Amino acid sequence: MRSRSVIAGLAVAAGSLAGALHFRNRAQRRRERIELYFGDGSMVSLSSGQPGADRLLAHARELFAATR
Amino acid sequence: MGAVPVGGREVLASALMPPAAQALTDMIEISAQIQAAVVFDREATVLASTLPDERARLLATSALGLLRAAEEARPDEETGFAQLDAALRDGYVFLVADGDHAIAATTGPEPTVGLVFYDLKRCLDGLGEEPAPPPEKPRRPPVKRTAARTKKTDDAKS
To answer: How far is the first Cα of chain A from the last one, in angstroms, to the nearest whole number?
Structure first.
């Protein structure tokens, strides 16, 4: 009886963890970001809130809105 | 600007640069992911676009602002800005620059980023190409005219 409740508890914990990871990944994907690629092959990825990102994202949003 | 319908979308071409319209038309034909695009120069002059005049100008102006802001990130010409993609809530913005010309495009959420960049670069490369001349019609050898058969008088008699 006790072992069954332990298994059930583990299953619930594993499910909660999987759900939390899924939602975290989804939230990260939905987070606005901009990736700049340079002539030497390097790349800089900036997420909203990081220094320099907000200005670029504001321009990108303006551009996107111009197509709507 | 003249309009060319391409698969439900229209490409509006400036008379300033016919290869831009051709390159954009070719790109729109093969890329279903791109929703709107504009080819422009460093004075925000629209060379070709999938949007009507006024919106194309607005798009080019916004895109030039984004291009300038991105170039400020690293002002060196050789190792400077080449391209960018921005993931927004409702979709993606792409921008590719090459010398005096640039192309900006928008897609829906979760596009195939590499493929979109490839299509945009090909479109920009196409600006330098001369439009292909119409294929020459193969010349047929002159037809020999043979005299019309006349019935021999002997045949007529028999």
So the answer is: 61
Nearest CA to CA, how far is A19 from chain B (Å)? 21
Read off the tokens for B14.
């400036």
CB B32 within 8 A of CB B17: no
Cβ–Cβ below 8 Å for B36 and A67: yes
| Tens digit of each residue's pLDDT (9 = 90 or more) over B57-94 | 999 999 999 999 999 987 666 778 999 999 999 999 99
Report CA torsion sign: B99, B104, B107, B110: positive
Q: CA B2, CA B80: separation in Å to the nearest integer?
A: 35
Does pTM top 0.80 for this prediction? no
What is the C-alpha to C-alpha distance for residues B99 and B5, in angstroms, rounded to an integer? 29
Q: Which of B67, B110, B79 is nearest to A56 (CA)?
A: B67
Residues B102-138: tens digit of each pLDDT:
999 999 999 999 999 999 999 999 887 655 555 566 6
